[in-house]
Amino acid sequence: DAGVTQSPTHLIKTRGQHVTLRCSPISGHKSVSWYQQVLGQGPQFIFQYYEKEERGRGNFPDRFSARQFPNYSSELNVNALLLGDSALYLCASSHRTSGRGNEQFFGPGTRLTVL
Amino acid sequence: GEDVEQSLFLSVREGDSSVINCTYTDSSSTYLYWYKQEPGAGLQLLTYIFSNMDMKQDQRLTVLLNKKDKHLSLRIADTQTGDSAIYFCAETPKGGYNKLIFGAGTRLAVHP
């Protein structure tokens, strides 16, 4: 079975632009979460979606938004990019939102560079 | 509060055991995880432990949980060069959704 896939793998943008990152979960997984990993740090939680509804949001500004589609794939959108948004953006999927079976499996990430 | 702390660096000789330590603050955490990240890659789930367990063994990996001290450790037996990576400890605070709180990661270097 294919794991979590993300596109694109790398992206270069300039300040003020917006970006859309995409994620396809493992087949059968209904939950998708997004994380931001700045160089040298651990991932920081951005959003979690389950059955197309937002179930959790981290401490990120409103410039960050996301959605989940009927096929459970997801998009992360970031508007008005800042230099500090440069990071590896990771998507994770899981079968459930809590309890046994909620282990999260991560994709390879999208490396975003903002110039 | 939610905080996970790890030592930043560990160096071991090939064939020795590695022990990576982690402390967390949220006593309501239900699951605790260990992830591995190789350079330029995403995170690989290594193992996890439920908060009502003390120990879990999975081949070369042993996880120990001291809930009283909020201390988690990962022991890798017979460490190999392929184990060189960054290891992240993560907790899932009780709250009904999949928010993972990660530490800053421990870089494991394995030398001959």
Characterize the structure shown.
The complex is a heterodimer of chains A (115) and B (112). Chain A has strands at residues 5-7, 10-13, 19-24, 31-37, 44-50, 53-57, 64-68, 74-78, 87-94, 105-106, 110-114. With 115 residues, chain A is mainly beta. Chain B has strands spanning 4-6, 9-13, 18-24, 31-37, 43-50, 55-58, 61-66, 71-76, 85-92, 101-102, 106-111. The mean pLDDT of chain B is 91. Chains A and B meet through strand 4, strand 5, strand 9 and strand 10 of A and strand 4, strand 5, strand 9 and strand 10 of B.
Provide a count of the helices of chain B: 0
- Order of SSEs of chain A: EEEEEEEEEEE
Structural class by SSE content of chain B:
mainly beta
Query: In percent, how much strand structure appears in the residues of chain A?
Result: over 45%
How much is the radius of gyration of chain A in Å? 13 Å
Termini separation of chain A comes to 37 Å
Ordered list of secondary-structure elements with their pairings:
The complex is a heterodimer of chains A (115) and B (112).
Chain A (H helix, E strand, L loop, with lengths): L4 E3 L2 E4 L5 E6 L6 E7 L6 E7 L2 E5 L6 E5 L5 E5 L8 E8 L10 E2 L3 E5 L1
Parallel strand pairs in A: 2-11
Antiparallel strand pairs in A: 1-3, 3-8, 4-5, 4-9, 5-6, 7-8, 9-10, 9-11
Chain B lengths: L3 E3 L2 E5 L4 E7 L6 E7 L5 E8 L4 E4 L2 E6 L4 E6 L8 E8 L8 E2 L3 E6 L1
Parallel strand pairs in B: 2-11
Antiparallel strand pairs in B: 1-3, 3-8, 4-5, 4-9, 6-7, 7-8, 9-10, 9-11
Which key features would you list for this structure?
heterodimer, A: 115 residues, 7-stranded mixed beta sheet, B: 112 residues, mainly beta, 6-stranded mixed beta sheet
What's the quick description here?
The complex is a heterodimer of chains A (115) and B (112). Chain A has 115 residues and is mainly beta.
